[in-house]
Amino acid sequence: MTSDGNEQPALRHQPDSSAFVLRSLIVLSPLAAVGITWLAADRSLPGVAVLVVLLAGVCATRPGSHLGVLVVAAIAIQWLAIVHNHTTPWSIGAAAALTIFHAAQAAATVAPTTAAWTPAMWRRWSRRAAALFIASAATWIIVALTNAHQPAASTVLLTASLLVLASGAVWAGQGNTRPHTPE
Predict the structure, then answer these.
(1) Domain count along the chain
(2) CA-CA 20 to 30 A from 156: which of 29, 38, 124, 173?
(3) Strand, coil or helix: what is 43?
(4) pLDDT tens digit string along 39-86?
(5) Model-level pTM?
């Protein structure tokens, strides 16, 4: 209570439910990627699952650490070791799981665990995750089409690929071309 008899709002020391959701996604999405890899290959590497669980748990408690790179590397190495059909549709599921992992870990670093997420923050991070997923799905489609047609040294494919890469570079760099002004 204050001297005028009014109650002060209690300081918030409990993590917001948004933080719990993000940290749950940090742990669960790599496990989904491991499971999808197992489904794509019809076999498993249990040691990789244990490693991913341990690393993802640390990433959930310390989302700003660089251990997320090791999580992605472990899943990628497992994929390359046991999945022999590189154009399987399962790769879209694995990409979606890794997209969720990346977006959740990045989003968990932008605010303290006690901060409530606004609808604008959810929209911003959902758009970022959607852009990553769309790029992953588009890449899979291109790889699947290329694999189906066997375009050995196709000039048209090379030109189209370079145009897409150049367009992506221009689009990605547009936000960085403005001079930085101190606030």
Answers:
(1) 1
(2) 173
(3) coil
(4) 999 988 899 999 999 999 999 999 888 999 999 999 999 999 999 987
(5) 0.71
Q: Is residue 142 part of a domain?
A: yes
Domain that holds residue 32: 17-169
CA neighbor of 99 nearest in space, from 52, 47, 32: 32
3-state helix, strand, coil in the chain (%, to 5): 70, 0, 30
Nearest to 122 by CA among 103, 135, 96, 136: 103
Query: What six digits make up the tokens of 36?
Result: 């999808």
Residues of the chain above pLDDT 70, percent: 80
Q: For residue 79, is it within any domain?
A: yes
